[in-house]
Here is the input.
Amino acid sequence: MGKMRTVLIIVGIGIFLAVQVAAQQPTASPSSSPVPEKKAPAAESPTAKLTSARTVLITRARGNNIPYETIQSTVAGWMRFSLVDTVEKADIVISVESYGDSDVRVSSTAGPNATTGQMEQSSKTSKDLSATEIRLTVLDAKNKHVLWTSSEKVKFAMKKNAKESNMVEAAERLASRLHDRVEAPLPARSR
Here is the structure.
């Protein structure tokens, strides 16, 4: 009986140790597989997209050609971007709009006279003297998200040449703001 008892104790201890070892081993289940999780790529900030862009499409969304041509020639002069002719080739799209162009409008109408009942034609001339505003909007060419936008009021002028000069100056100020946004500032020099 003594040998039997020793064998049972040894078998019991063996079973106990086997259960303990099995409890410490990780179990392989589908929910806790060792496959690493795929992380979504971090969203790139608008500033990072602007500074990393290499190709640009410049479009005139509406308004006068002067701001569009000024922005286009200024951006081309930076030699930072390659100008492209389609959205598919562009990293960013620069949209140029001008509102409130001072102009003369002539309209004519025909209708019956209230007193005589006879058909009469009348014309109306109006001059729009509202301030012109130029808006520059930079879009991500791939997803059309707005990366940057700014606007500039054009100084009022009665004469055509002065008005055009003021439009060029306002467009150049907008281009300068875009340049400051796109180009990283130079580090301060230590003395």
About this structure: Residues 46-102+129-182 form a domain with the Rossmann fold fold (CATH 3.40.50.10070).
